[in-house]
Amino acid sequence: MKVYTGRGDEGQTDLRDMSRVSKTSPRIEAYGTVDEVNALLGRVRPTGYDDVDQKLRAVQNHLHVVQADFANPDPDEDDPQVTEAHVADLEDWMDGYDEELEPLESFILPGGGEAGADLHHARTVCRRAERRAVALAEAEEEVVNAAAVTYLNRLSDALFVFARLVNQRDGEPEESPTY
């Protein structure tokens, strides 16, 4: 199978239903930014912590579902779609890790060790993906799966928790901003 087709050379691309849209459409911006989050998570793994790596691998698979969801303007029942179960996974993981973390008492500066800083970076790109998803929902007449938008919102929270956790395990101190 060839990687290139030449079909996008004039600024158009195919959606899952084979309709053609501009590469600058809100739909492409949304799932393209999700792809960016996924690539950043691929850079983070391995973090050095099997439990975190296992969850990040699951998240990367979830993000493929988000992309498929956004790439499909008219999904059928058996098409990949984000569900509330995906969101619940993130919430369960955060709740479990919150027990290990020191309570958060103020804002913190993103950073820390390599894995922690990379997770903070992925978190900020995830927030951008969420904004793109909201813009898609506002711009398109088709219904956008609300669970996918919620997933991105919750994922950015989870990546924040993962960053704090990895930094704490690595002995990296959290720094608060000075105002």
Question: Would you give an account of this structure?
Answer:
- This protein is mostly helical and 179 residues long.
- The chain has a single domain, classed as Cobalamin adenosyltransferase-like (Hypothetical Protein Ta1238, Chain: A, Up-down Bundle), CATH 1.20.1200.
- Helices cover 59% and strands 3% of the residues.
- It contains five helices and two strands.
- The protein has helices at 26-44, 50-70, 84-98, 114-139, 146-169, and strands at residues 12-14, 20-22.
- A two-stranded antiparallel sheet has the order 1-2.
- Helix 1 (26-44) packs antiparallel against helix 4 (114-139) and helix 4 packs antiparallel against helix 5 (146-169).
- It is elongated and about 50 Å long.
- The termini are far apart.
The count of helical stretches stands at 5
What fraction strand? under 5%
The rough form would be described as elongated
Poorly predicted tracts of residues: none
Q: How are strands sequenced across the largest beta sheet? A: 1-2
Major sheet: 2 strands, antiparallel
Helix content: 55-70%
- The topology string of helices and strands comes to EEHHHHH
CATH architecture: Up-down Bundle
Q: Can you tell me the CATH superfamily?
A: Cobalamin adenosyltransferase-like
* Whole-angstrom Rg: 18 Å
Q: What is the fold named in CATH at topology level?
A: Hypothetical Protein Ta1238, Chain: A
